[in-house]
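Table 4 source record.
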Amino acid sequence: MFLAVVSNKLMIMDTSINDRLKQARKALNLSQKQFAAGIFLKGSGYIGDIEIYRHEVNERIIELVSSIYGVNKAWLKTGNGKMFEGTKLDKQLNEMNIYFNQLNPHFKSYVLSQIKQLIKLQNIKDM
């Protein structure tokens, strides 16, 4: 066990992969439900079960958490290194992805069309 500051809170942390997954979720300020939706899981039950050791963290979860949330795979597996990797832009893209994945398909299409319209407006202003 060790002490860590997560979201400006001093927390006692264990070094298990389950605890590191929970630590990463809390650092992202996401509920279990939001975190699960971001990695394409329905509901919060599976993440909750991981956090209370009913399920193990499998390789698929590690890959998804790393690619979607930018969590360092090595840190997640072993506790070595930094929790997050990447640049500020990567973090912004990850945040957009988190919210986008929570939308239903109709709203996803709407958001994409709005982004395309914003790019057209931006290009007109740049002329």
